[in-house]
């Protein structure tokens, strides 16, 4: 990165940019000898007429310092979970080694594989920060239980809870099981919880202590102790709440400009004293330093990225999918029925360009709504679905479902035996569930069926890095992107401060261009 001399007056756009990029130093704008320029040398500033100045703004000062202290990280930046293990252990390790928080994408991964991954992460990252995703599974409660069992077994000290519409016994169990008293007799919260929400009414239960009835049932089952139950009355369910705006995957596509202030206001209205310490972060649409800077300006304690990390070297996505992501623009996303909440009509945001998944998934949902069971589907429609989507008879698909749920959640088969519509839902979810796996593995004959969770942040990122070293997929490393995002956010925040003070900067100074940073 270029640097400007600090002992002379910077007057060119390049020199002013270099001064402002040195975010750990102050920068004065002065008039001297009939010229207006900038300097970071206090001696030069002392000899001139100071017009305005910006203070040092290291990236670590963005957001809430308590987030960094609580999670043992160096910045208010996290890589959120991407389901089916796309947020792979390699990504979690890379971020942790760089001093950032990342969440393992456990949703959609078999319990045995999750347990193995968490065991390996716990051994590899002793004393370093990492989290595990716990996604709400309304039709498969056994999955929630298995994830919590693994997190407690491997002493995973942070969970990112997502897609919860209300509190469940398992998310409460994780939180309460981590409560204790230290050697000084003070309350100790060992299990941290980050709740990802997109509605105020969903956030509110996480701002309160866990429901007494749920805690009592956990005590009765021996899952938590009576002492932990009493301590639970003093703490809110979450340490952090992430405002999930227009993100990839599960999303309500809420505008961050509205959602984040609403959640901050809800936190501030809480009557529980401990809720005042709950930090509110921002996710969804965070694909550029400008977006991150805007979130911090709105009061975000931290920012969370997702879509942009899918195209990094550490992500568990195939090369073909990463190429599709690298070509995406911010308008190349659409909504499609989700696999895990199919019957409820819940949708996920996916990549539209280069794949037909969204339209095909919607066709399945429309069919599900129209008919009472597989046997009621008209013969011509059924034949077309078998030929184009499933590529096999539905009876064969059902046998795959039987094999799958016998191992994973046998209760699903009981429900299907009693309700033909339930059976049809499981068969249709076969396609929805496997489509993301085809993308991850890179099944060449299923490219048009790839389900790629993606939000508009991906297009914003691609436009920002166009023409720079980050345009090449081979150069996209998740921790390096985090560094660039945070440095850029600090730089652009200083630009905004100067604009507020009335400084008119050359246009070239107002953009942050990613440049390779020195290795740590």
Describe this entry's structure for a reader.
By secondary structure, this protein is of the alpha/beta class. 42% of the residues lie in helices and 14% in strands. It has helices spanning 13-21, 42-46, 65-71, 89-97, 111-124, 141-153, 169-177, 200-203, 212-220, 226-232, 256-269, 289-297, 319-326, 357-370, 379-390, 394-408, 411-418, 420-441, 457-465, 478-500, and strands at residues 27-32, 35-39, 49-54, 77-79, 101-104, 131-135, 158-162, 179-181, 187-189, 192-197, 240-244, 249-250, 279-283, 303-305, 333-337, 347-351. Helix 7 packs across helix 9 and helix 16 packs across helix 18 (420-441).
Q: What value does the Rg take, in angstroms?
A: 25 Å
DSSP E strands, number: 16
Helical proportion?
A: 40-55%
Number of helices: 20
As a percent range, the share of strand residues is: 5-15%
Low-confidence stretches: none
Please state the average pLDDT score: 94
Question: What coarse outline follows from CA principal-axis ratios?
Answer: globular
Strand order of the largest sheet: 4-5-6-7-10-11-13-14
Largest sheet: 8 strands, parallel, barrel
Distance between the terminal alpha carbons, to the nearest Å? 15 Å
Coarse structural class: alpha/beta
């Amino acid at each position: 990165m270029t640097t400007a001399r600090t002992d002379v007056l910077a007057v060119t756009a390049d020199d002013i940019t270099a001064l402002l990029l040195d975010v750990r130093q102050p920068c004065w704008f002065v008039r001297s000898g009939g010229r207006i320029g900038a300097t970071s040398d206090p001696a030069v500033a002392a000899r001139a007429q100071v017009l305005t100045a910006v203070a040092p703004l290291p990236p670590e000062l963005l957001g809430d310092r308590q987030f960094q202290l609580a999670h043992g990280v160096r910045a208010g930046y996290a890589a959120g979970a991407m389901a089916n293990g796309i947020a792979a252990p390699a990504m979690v390790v890379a971020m942790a080694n760089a001093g950032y928080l990342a969440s393992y994408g456990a949703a959609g991964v078999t319990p045995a594989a999750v347990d193995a991954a968490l065991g390996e992460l716990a051994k590899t990252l002793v004393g370093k920060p990492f989290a595990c995703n716990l996604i709400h599974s309304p039709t498969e409660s056994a999955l929630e239980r298995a994830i919590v069992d693994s997190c407690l077994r491997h002493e995973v000290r942070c969970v990112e809870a997502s897609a919860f519409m209300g509190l469940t016994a398992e998310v409460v169990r994780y939180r309460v099981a981590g409560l204790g008293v230290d050697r000084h007799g003070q309350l100790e919260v060992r299990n941290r919880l980050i709740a990802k929400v997109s509605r105020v009414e969903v956030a509110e239960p996480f701002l309160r202590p866990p429901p007494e009835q749920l805690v009592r049932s956990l005590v009765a089952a021996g899952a938590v102790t009576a002492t932990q139950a009493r301590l639970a009355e003093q703490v809110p369910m979450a340490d952090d709440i992430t405002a999930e705006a227009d993100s990839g995957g599960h999303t309500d596509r809420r505008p961050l400009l509205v959602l984040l202030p609403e959640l901050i206001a809800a936190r501030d209205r809480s009557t529980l004293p401990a809720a005042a310490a709950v930090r509110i972060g921002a996710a969804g649409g965070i694909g550029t330093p400008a977006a991150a800077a805007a979130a911090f300006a709105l009061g975000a304690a931290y920012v969370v990225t997702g879509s942009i990390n899918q195209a990094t070297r550490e992500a568990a996505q195939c090369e073909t999918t990463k190429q599709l992501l690298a070509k995406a623009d911010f308008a190349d996303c659409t909504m499609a029925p989700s696999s895990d909440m199919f019957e409820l009509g819940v949708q996920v945001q996916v990549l539209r360009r280069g794949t037909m998944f969204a339209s095909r998934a919607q066709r399945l949902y429309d069919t599900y709504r129209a008919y009472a069971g597989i046997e009621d589907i008209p013969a011509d429609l059924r034949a077309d679905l078998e030929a184009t989507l499933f590529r096999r008879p539905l009876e064969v698909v059902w046998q795959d479902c039987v094999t799958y749920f016998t191992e994973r959640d046998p209760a699903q088969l009981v429900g299907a035996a009693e309700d033909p519509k339930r059976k049809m839902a499981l068969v249709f979810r076969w396609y929805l569930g496997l489509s993301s796996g085809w993308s991850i593995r890179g099944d060449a004959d299923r490219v048009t069926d790839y389900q790629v969770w993606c939000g508009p942040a991906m297009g914003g990122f691609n436009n920002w890095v166009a023409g720079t070293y980050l345009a090449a997929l081979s150069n996209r490393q998740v921790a390096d992107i985090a560094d660039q995002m945070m440095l850029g956010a600090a730089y652009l925040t200083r630009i905004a401060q100067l604009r507020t003070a009335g400084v008119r900067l050359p246009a070239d100074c107002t953009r942050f261009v990613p440049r390779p940073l020195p290795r740590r």
